[in-house]
From TrEMBL:
InterPro entries xref list: Integral_membrane_TerC
Location within or outside the cell: Membrane
Annotated organism of origin: Fibrella aquatilis
Keywords: Membrane, Transmembrane, Transmembrane helix
Membrane topology: Multi-pass membrane protein
Protein family per UniProt: Belongs to the TerC family.
The protein's name in its UniProt record: TerC family protein
Single GO cellular component term: membrane
The keyword Membrane appears for this protein: yes
Length: 238
């Protein structure tokens, strides 16, 4: 029994690390949406969004046989096989591209236009939570199918999901605060979401972009922005 448990420990830790990395996308999206709400409602949206992501992933694990079937071909167009998973990824990717592009335009153009309508005035908690749920579904399906491909023990998957969501809940507050306090990083985060949306669309079309390339590019861009921020701050104080 001890031997079996130790044999599952490495896959469990590996899966947790992978799920946390994949969960960063979710945290960034929720943090940007939460910033559109009054301060007293932002934590509520983060906790609800991440909590519902856990419920959704646990529910998907409960119907694991159906999830596995999402990789089966439904139809073929121009030589491209379309599965349930690819359709979900395509829809989620296009939604993410639309949201990121809209927010970038709002930050880059409308914020400086005194006559522009207040886009944030029309939003409410339930509307933003609905958008979070759409991305929760996309990321959850991708996450669970990834987990199924890595391990074949159900309790390992359940444990990884619960631990990952706990880490996301702890990390969401400082990440959200940092993005909110640094406008340049908010634009960078939106560009990250735009790139993630494009990668989801590519994956939905069976054009696999290695996740390592995407996260390396994100880390490099983040480092450049940190260096630029430090340089500007130093110049301002000199």
């Amino acid at each position: 029994m001890d031997l079996d448990l130790s044999a599952q420990l490495v896959p469990l830790l590996t899966l947790i690390v992978l799920e946390v990395i994949l969960g960063i996308d979710n945290i960034i999206f929720i943090s940007i949406l939460a910033d559109k709400l009054p301060v007293e409602q932002r934590d509520r949206l983060r906790y609800w969004g991440i909590g519902l992501a856990m419920v959704m992933r646990l529910a998907l694990l409960a119907v694991i046989a159906w999830i596995i079937q999402l990789d089966q071909t439904l139809f073929v167009v121009a030589g491209v096989d379309f599965t349930g998973k690819s359709l979900i990824l395509l829809a989620g990717g296009l939604f993410l591209i639309y949201k990121a592009t809209k927010e970038i335009y709002h930050k880059a153009e409308l914020d400086n236009d005194a006559n522009a309508p207040d886009v944030g005035a029309a939003v409410n908690f339930n509307a933003l939570l609905g958008q979070v749920l759409i991305l929760d579904l996309v990321f959850s399906v991708d996450s669970i199918i990834t987990a199924v491909g890595m391990v074949d023990t159900l309790w390992v998957m359940y444990t990884a999901v619960v631990v990952t969501v706990g880490i996301m809940l702890v990390a969401s507050k400082p990440i959200s605060t940092f993005i909110s306090q640094h406008p340049s990083f908010k634009i960078l985060a939106l560009c990250f979401l735009l790139m993630i949306g494009m990668s989801l669309v590519a994956e939905g079309m069976h054009f696999k972009i290695p996740k390592g390339y995407i996260y390396f590019a994100m880390a490099f861009a983040f480092l450049v922005d940190v260096i630029q921020m430090k340089t500007v701050h130093k110049s301002a104080n000199s």
